[in-house]
Design brief:
heterodimer, A: mainly beta, 7-stranded mixed beta sheet, 11 strands, 52% strand, globular, B: mainly beta, 5-stranded antiparallel beta sheet
Amino acid sequence: SAVISQKPSRDICQRGTSLTIQCQVDSQVTMMFWYRQQPGQSLTLIATANQGSEATYESGFVIDKFPISRPNLTFSTLTVSNMSPEDSSIYLCSVLGGTGNTIYFGEGSWLTVV
Amino acid sequence: KQEVTQIPAALSVPEGENLVLNCSFTDSAIYNLQWFRQDPGKGLTSLLLIQSSQREQTSGRLNASLDKSSGRSTLYIAASQPGDSATYLCAVRRVGAGSYQLTFGKGTKLSVIP
């Protein structure tokens, strides 16, 4: 299994500001993913981040709002830009495990926008 | 478009009871199905993964079954304990080259009463 660390675990942010979430994995992984979980809702995939290429965004998510970096095989960042209260969510980093089957998640970053 | 439904949305049982959580999905063309546990305000812990060719998987007191043709999975928890209290999420991964997106249900919130 993979151990995934996210920072920050929680934050309260002002409307209009941006926040960068960091994701660190204890092993090299090819596939990394960012999900969002809005209050009372299921998880939704924001984008897939592969090292050495641009992130692939799902419908409804754009790079200007959620820029992603993937500088190496163990690290990624997600920035939530120009935040509004609707961005209040848990943001979760996940990776595809070594066997290529199991997907593992980090502890999540709980953002509240006021 | 794949849709995943989990019933019931919430369940409360006395300690020691055996229980079953249900998950249904609309598109049977899945690669695998994962069950996760989520504690309040936290990330997801992978519990069991069932490949599309498998019928069930077991880990300790947990047993997950898969009936792909009918679009159903169940998670059986034996001899429930208060520490099992959490939200249980079901997620399916679709078939397709380079397809890693998980589609999640909204979860079943389980409370085990001492």
